[in-house]
Design a protein that fits this description.
The chain is mostly beta strands. It is built from three helices and 22 strands.
């Protein structure tokens, strides 16, 4: 894969920071985990990844200060995605997609839990921090810095009836302390206000995605 001096230095640095070595990262394939580029992928030794997880190049799963990351089967971390449990807990549900179209950063500080349900989508270069609950099918779309938010559970983006899908936060800007019920979308550009909540069918007629 690489020359010996580089491998030795890289493995030493990885080990110091609690990550798997290059060979250990490549060996995740033996457990049914897809790692396209072990050299650019960092996976914490303490992280729990289920069979069927896919890690695209330049992804990072970090556990520090007793933090914990658990990723369920079929979840995908796209290029540029970083999950960092800095003393907190991050859980990712099955078949969830994180970081398509620009990566995504999720940071759980000490004493905080970020729980992401099944078939959720987080995309477009956003950030998730604080105490958060993204219900099944919930979506964050866009460069949004979100903290202490809740998205109601519902169907995924494939659900034919948009008003039965998980809550959606989309746009760009800072969103703090907000709750979006299932079947609703909160769109903002710089500022997010719950007064702007709209049924998802407002944006997507029934039968569309």
């Amino acid at each position: 894969m690489t020359d010996l001096p580089f491998r030795t230095a890289a493995d030493a640095a990885r080990s110091r920071h609690g990550f798997l070595t290059l060979d250990e990262t490549a060996a995740l394939a033996e457990r049914g985990i897809v790692v396209f580029d072990p050299a650019s992928t960092l996976v914490a030794r303490a992280a729990v990844l289920a069979e069927g997880v896919t890690l695209w190049p330049a992804t990072q799963v970090r556990c520090a200060d007793g933090g914990r990351v658990e990723i369920a089967e079929g979840a995908v971390l796209w290029t540029g995605t970083r999950l960092a449990a800095e003393g907190g807990i991050i859980t990712v549900g099955s078949a969830t997609s994180i970081g398509e179209e620009g990566g995504f950063t999720i940071v759980a500080e000490a004493g905080r839990t970020i729980a992401i349900g099944a078939e959720a989508r987080l995309r477009g270069g956003g950030t998730l921090e604080g105490e958060c609950g993204i219900g099944d099918g919930g979506q964050i779309i866009g460069a949004i810095r979100a903290r202490d938010i809740r998205l109601g559970a519902g169907g995924s983006w494939r659900e034919p009836d948009p008003d039965r899908r998980g809550g959606v936060l989309k746009g760009v800007g800072v969103a703090r302390g907000l709750a979006v019920p299932s079947g609703f979308t909160l769109q903002g550009f710089g500022v997010f206000d719950v007064a702007d909540l709209k049924p998802q069918s407002f944006f997507h007629p029934r039968g569309s995605r």
